């Protein structure tokens, strides 16, 4: 019985890739050094899989930035604005595409969420002039040859052609589906090069877990017809949701291998797959950190092995392990009882091997028994279920989900209190997290400095940020968040029911890594979480300072969530904790409060039939957190790097007084939704791409704002960056915000005589 994982994390257990890439960007390391790090990380991943007992190693899942971007380069899909430039190496070109080229003032490609995960991929651009053809040299081929030279049995993995084409963006008149023939030919050529060296070639097609249009289905048929010479080698991997009616499309392709995500798919679909096909059963959850219930997994797999035979059954992770931390053994601060409940990527590889040995020869042993006892201990632990928390959720009423006055009345009260100009300017929340700030936080956590020393330093940083914003001329200020390591982790460290890790890093995009906290029990607030810092910041200025909170859905979606109660109940527990924090902020005189919800869109189920149920409880959770605020308190929310067109009515249902969204990378294309839907409240479409080192000019931001004014009334429009400024440097932030404020002033002169 073959065993494999769909993919393995690429960042390194100690974020070696992040450090190497950023050193290369800074000129502190050369390309050879960077590629040596990449080679070591690939070899570590393959060795880990082999030593765990997996029969195949997955090759091609490594990338220096993003695997979809790598595929675009392999297909020679380079936007015209970059084609005229001469980059010394494909790595330099890929980084320019992902981050923009500051020196040449070329904007980056768009970036958005990978299905319903918190991973962000770089969006390929399809221009009218694009010509798709396989590059002479590809990184996937280099990686396969390296793995083979080291003696591994190789399964190569590629982004599936239909998924790649579906996730690309058209920039001209030519429809994406007209590229299907070119894409099919390029993939066929690549497969012909890879096939002699691989046991399997995995085509990752998570798009099959979504509702496909007729053009998509036609493109599938066109593309896979061109791959017919290689069907014996192809394993199509569908994950993130049930394949549903798309199973017929999948079977029609004639591919020999089919992978299904059985953590999100019913076993009924297996009976529809002919016995001459090889089926890969994804029974180890690649999206969460809980130990697998091996006995339950065996019950799912055993009938299929008996029917199909070991030679036509494979065991695998549900999806790539990219979405979980690498090695639980690096965690030294987690409570032992919680650690016993968990499995990271390394441990999940071992679980796969153990399950295979059990199915093959009945092996159980100490690890099998340990998993059973851990599951039972988790169910019974007193911190997992707290009656008073559950009673409070059960008693939530409809009145708690609505503000006391409609928006128009609230806006009048808020304007009287705040006195903001037309086109008010603000930022999203964070300011640059300098190495000095991170060092002080780390020293405080290690006990090397006292709380008094720590708080004195943080007060100094907050005052610095307040003075910077006053000098820049911003209207609504923030405290800069120097005390926060991460917008979710910060609150998780203060909320019972959560635990956090030391080395549980997961790639979010490029070199940006996060440590998702773990929700293991009922969540509640034991004490105020932000009052200390927000009230200090407000004491320094007469301008309003926003209280900054992370919303309940984002706290849920950007954490590893418990799987023993409905997600809606967890979101409501968090919302009630935030509702208490909002009340305390108001009591301290804070009149503007931002509750960020960037994850609402990414949380959408992949099938539209499930959207309404999710969106109902997701928007209710936000309203539960925010609606206790007095009508004169201005509630903001923020969303970034998602497409909102199809849920704009639900975004309006949040009833936030002001919403800020990412819009600059897409050149305000996200605002297309406002042509058909009259958004009732205020909105700030971002005019400054904070994920690029570029400094946008006044004219560029002014043009974007004028574009926004085509669909947004002047009295509704706010001016702000796309997202927080945590990852940027001050030398980029100051001139960018200076230009942003000046662009707003130019608009005021036009629309309000400069007031």
From TrEMBL:
Binding positions for L-methionine per the UniProt entry: 428-430, 481, 596
Active-site residues from the entry: 691 (proton donor)
Binding residues annotated for Zn(2+) 1, in chain numbering: 638, 640, 723
EC class (word): transferase
Record: residues binding Zn(2+): 638, 640, 662, 723
Co-factor note (free text): Binds 1 zinc ion per subunit.
GO molecular function per UniProt: 5-methyltetrahydropteroyltriglutamate-homocysteine S-methyltransferase activity; zinc ion binding
GO biological process: methionine biosynthetic process; methylation
Amino acids binding Zn(2+) 2: 662
Binding residue positions for 5-methyltetrahydropteroyltri-L-glutamate: 15-18, 113, 118, 512-513, 558, 602
List of residues binding L-homocysteine: 428-430, 481, 596
Location of the Cobalamin-independent methionine synthase MetE N-terminal domain: 3-302
EC numbers for this chain: 2.1.1.14
Classification via InterPro entries: Cbl-indep_Met_Synth_N (IPR013215), Cobalamin-indep_Met_synthase (IPR006276), Met_Synth_C/arc (IPR002629), UROD/MetE-like_sf (IPR038071)
Swiss-Prot/TrEMBL cofactor(s): Zn(2+)
Domain called Cobalamin-independent methionine synthase MetE C-terminal/archaeal: residue spans: 423-745
Catalytic activity field: 5-methyltetrahydropteroyltri-L-glutamate + L-homocysteine = tetrahydropteroyltri-L-glutamate + L-methionine
Listed Pfam families: Meth_synt_1 (PF08267), Meth_synt_2 (PF01717)
Keyword vocabulary terms for this entry: Amino-acid biosynthesis, Metal-binding, Methionine biosynthesis, Methyltransferase, Repeat, Transferase, Zinc
Function field: Catalyzes the transfer of a methyl group from 5-methyltetrahydrofolate to homocysteine resulting in methionine formation.
Family as reported in the entry's similarity comment: Belongs to the vitamin-B12 independent methionine synthase family.
Protein name per its UniProtKB record: 5-methyltetrahydropteroyltriglutamate--homocysteine methyltransferase
Organism: Winmispira thermophila (strain ATCC 700085 / DSM 6578 / Z-1203)
Name of the encoding gene: metE
